[in-house]
Amino acid sequence: MDKKQNKAAAFFKSKYFGYIIFGALLSLLPLATQAGVLKTSMIGIVGGTIIYSIVAQGLNINLGFAGLTSLGTAGFMGLGAYISAFLTENMGWAWEASLIVSIVICVLLGLVVGLISLRVEGLYLGIITLCIAEIFRKTFEELDPITGGYAGKKASFPTIFFGGWKLNQAQNYVLLAIIMVIMMILTYNLVHGQIGRALHAMRGSTSAAQAMGISLFKYRLMAFALSTGYAALGGVLYVHFFRFAYPSTWTLTLSLNIVAMVVIGGSRTIFGPFLGAVIVYSLQDLVIKRIPVIGDLNGISYIISGVLIILVVMFYPKGVINFFSQIKEKAGKSKAAAPAAVPAAQTESGKEENADE
Amino acid sequence: MSEAVLLDDEVLKIDNLSMHFGGLKAVDQLSFTIKEKEIFGLIGPNGAGKTTVFNCITQFYKPTAGNVVFRNNKGEVQSLIGVKVHDIIRKGLVRTFQNVELIPELSLIDNVMVGAHIEFKAGLVSQFLKLPGARREEKAIREKAERALAFMGIGDLKDQLAGGQPYGVRKKVEIARTLMCDPKLIILDEPAAGLNDTETLQLADNIRKIRDEYNCTILLVEHDMRLVMSICDRICAISFGKFLACGTPAEIQANAQVQEAYLGEKEAEAEKDMKEEKSPLEKIKDNLLGKEN
Amino acid sequence: MATFFQLFLRSFETGAIYGLATLGIIIVFRTNALVNFAQGVMGMFGAYVITFAYSKGVPIVAAILIGVVAAIALGFVVDFCIIRRTKKVSGAGKEIITLGLMMVILGLVPIIFGVEPLKLGKVIADGSFTVFGANISYNSVLNIFFGIGITVLLFFLIQKSKLGLAIRSTASNEKTAKLMGVPTALVTLFAWAVAVVLGSLSGAMVAPATSVSINLMDSVQVCAFIACVLGGFQTFYGPVIAAYIIAIANNMLSYYVSSVWGTQILYIIIMVFIVFKPVGMFGKRTIKKV
Lengths: 357, 293, 290
Known about the structure:
The complex is a heterotrimer of chains A (357), B (293) and C (290). Chain A contains 18 helices and three strands. Chain A is mainly alpha-helical. Chain A has a two-stranded antiparallel sheet with strand order 1-3. The model of chain A is unreliable at 334-357 (pLDDT under 50). Chain B folds into three domains: 1-92 and 182-254, 3-Layer(aba) Sandwich (Rossmann fold); 105-181, no CATH class; 256-293. Helix content of chain B is 41%, strand content 22%. In chain B, strand 1 (10-21) and strand 2 form a beta hairpin. In chain B, helix 2 (108-114) runs parallel beside helix 5 (167-179). The longest helix of chain B has 23 residues, at 256-278. The radius of gyration of chain B is 21 Å and the shape is globular. The N and C termini of chain B lie far apart (46 Å). Chain C has one domain (2-214). Chain C contains eleven helices and two strands. Chain C has helices spanning 2-32, 39-55, 60-82, 91-113, 138-160, 162-172, 174-179, 184-206, 218-231, 237-257, 262-276, and strands at 128-131, 134-137. In chain C, strands 1-2 form a two-stranded antiparallel sheet. In chain C, strand 1 (128-131) and strand 2 form a beta hairpin. The longest helix of chain C is centred in the first third of the chain and has 31 residues, at 2-32. Chain C is globular and about 60 Å long. Chain C starts with a helix and ends in a 14-residue tail after the last helix. Chains A and C meet through helix 6, helix 7, helix 14 and helix 16 of A and helix 4, helix 9 and helix 11 of C.
């Protein structure tokens, strides 16, 4: 009995609980729009933010933890989107089945790309993924029967439980929030376990990592394949949420924006990519476009993202999320001499582990 | 390549090892043997090729010629040549680095746990979902890491970040990390470099303690002659990649060739110092340039 | 046979374009140890300046000179304001900075030059001649010789001059070079300026065949990067030769195999090649010091 209570208490203190509360709060949005507090278009914007935050979370594993640049994110996202749209619309597959198959295909392709590019240090991954993205983009334009070519490919809201329940936009939005929370929890587990430590070690010093028995090739490949998996998931969610996919969506521009989300929000954190997605994706729609004069300039949000990337890398490598941890620290919560975001996360994880006993 | 054979009490044999970089013979037909439960020192003047020998043993370099024979943790005798760098630790051979290589963003205990990387059996899915198996494993290894840190006398610092720790502590963490894989042979690359006298004394104690309690053999490269002479059972001296002498500390100290190699260096160093004294301007310039970096 | 020869000559024009862009990437890589993903958009910026001046009635040669000056200025600004201040940033961090730079330029160009695609004329407006049944315009000949000329000039500079020595020593070890009194700051400044100029010239060569938009250099950039991978990052000449090989192979595949899938097939062939020879055609595996 006592033990059970302890377990419950530990759960409320754990990171998981925070993620679930966060997801629950986001899920309240459709209620707010129904009550007329917020515009209905907000669902589309926040839904998009959630989808991009999932993709950015995947890139975070690759870019933040393994320290490898990848520029093919948009390509893999698009691939996932088209495969799922094709399987559900043309082949009549269930949403769940098409979700799994799309992700599996993308991960397998990611493994092949990784096998090619990760053989020489990490240097080639950025370049090879750039080429792969180019191949994908051309393929999306030319492979009419599957992708619909320039005209785009239509899809519909998911019907979950193998055809049992057709969702509307608001329900689909809640589904996105749930999936995001699940991905946050899974990512948290992963980066705080042995694989996370191996990725850290590799980024810090390749020779020390190797001496500890960490195969650089294996873990780089794993990080890259995982990030393509997240991207494919994001693509599937995208095509069923916005119900359309155009080749012009899956360009280098999008890949760069996703890099921006990870870097600006805060790499190697769980909430960082979401915050980055808010800054890079939603702020553009919600704030910048409404500022007079500047808002009318084509490309201004791109400049802001670019400048932010440069500034963050140069002066604030922990990302914008670090503001919050600093405020938290100033509020006197942490007595330890530990500076900034990472230590907080570390001691938390330690506590949780102890609570399991 | 010679056959992989070891006598019963031997754990590592370097056999006619050569490593050439272009025309430079960094290691030249070097041979020596390390016995079980020995603390073995490899010494030599600057640039003698000591670290290169380490890198050849641990397969960071592919030796030009020669063999490295090792009795692994299962008791099998095998050649290490051609074994992948990241598989060396699986044979029971683990090393530290000259410039301590820790992960600054992780706590000390997490850093030490990296040393047990090969002991984790849980797969990707199991870790993703934190299944009971992965959880148990993590807990067991965390406890082992706590013991290793406590063994090195820094158990109370376990949750602090590695980044902010003083050099002495970081060195201890690195040694604690090597203990995690139940090694047969630990290779220490200049463990005393940068330590003060008290810390060096402590290190000497710790090295002996590790040998006795973890039941392993230790090979070290070290510049601090007092440390080497006080803890090593046997020492091999090399100069310009070539074998000079091998024997007990007393034998090595008495060896004329070794004395010459070191005296030569002392003279050269003294000369260098003199030169530097002569042109303080140069020194300032170097400093300025260095700062610009 | 005439078609083949025509394709072959064309490929040298394409090769000149890829070669200059490739040199831009490699010169920055060798002096700054970073992969500059913004090389393409920097060239696009230069090409825009040239086209913009041209559209305002400036003669083409003068417009190109204006573009070169603008390119040098951009190179200086990038090195002075950003790269020079990132000495402490890790390699991956610097690459991310070039991605940020890319976004800034992509955002700035439509604001400065407008969103309408512009049109750039040829240096030699018309006229062509026939050799061995292959028809080739005077402008193409100019491009071919210009591309080879600039490359040879740069190689000569790198191999023979004092500046070249400084570049090579910075490329092999920046710290030592600096201690030996090589003005490494000047070398990197020069490298960035040269990289942008090369990109801009390459852009000016592509431009007449298409319209000038922010996507002008996308495919050139991809080919240039592939050339660096194929040729190996360790030499100056390897990637340039690879650039010409890619140009020839690309044109041949597009004509004889498939106009739609030719380029993709080429990329895949090159990637397979990389699997078997990861350091590229001219690269050597280096031993990393531990």
